[in-house]
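Support case: thymidine-5'-phosphate complex. Customer-provided input:
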Amino acid sequence: MKKLEMLYEGKAKKVYKTDSDDSYIVYYKDDATAGNGAKKGTILDKGIVNNKMSGMLFEMLEKEGVPNHFMELLSDREQLVKAVEIVPLEVIVRNLSAGSFSKRYGVEEGILFDQPIIEFSYKVDELGDPLINDSHILALKLATEEEIEKIKGMALKVNQVLSDFFLTKNLKLVDFKLEFGKHKGEIILADEISPDTCRLWDTETGEKMDKDRFRRDLGGIEEAYQEVMKRLEQ
Ligand code: TMP
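Agent response - structure generated as follows:
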């Protein structure tokens, strides 16, 4: 597959056209941002870890019946994906309180919910990705009722598959963010699943093994990403 011109550059990835209209090439960078770009930095070899980990998890999810954009790894930092038109929503699933949930509702981190929470943000950087509900999504015509239900069902399935898998690696899946896209009219899972987009806590020590180490200046960020990848490959 030939890599053609760059279509889009995001905070952590670049997307390129290919000689097929049906696929894109995604390049994973080491760039890291937090707080909607307020904090910027580099996490050495993050792109390599996230490319590999996303590929591995998407492959697992496909087998478990969650259709997604992943096709194949092309190199350390590149993967071939199905071309999608992104639904402009960040779909967040939470199993335990943390991050913006704890801040917004004034609760400590680490409270286990009776059932997972699904939350949507409207993906518009200039607006700061505001929280949005089903009625807003319908009013803004971002997705249909049927698509919202499909997205929620897929997000819960991803949560079940990944929570079980991470637990076998002594990692607690606290929360994560997904993005969905449309490929040939069908909603499929897209974007990435990595320590950039998940909160992962060591089940024994409670240590944070994800991008919170960067967001909160905890140090040991490269080591945490490498350790997660090592555990996943074992
Ligand atoms: P939050 O607690 O900051 O809302 O984040 C919830 C989860 O979503 C956490 O695992 C980090 C992830 N996330 C992203 O991947 N990208 C984002 O832009 C945001 C706000 C969160």
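The chain has a mean pLDDT of 97.

Case will auto-close in a few days if no follow-up is received.
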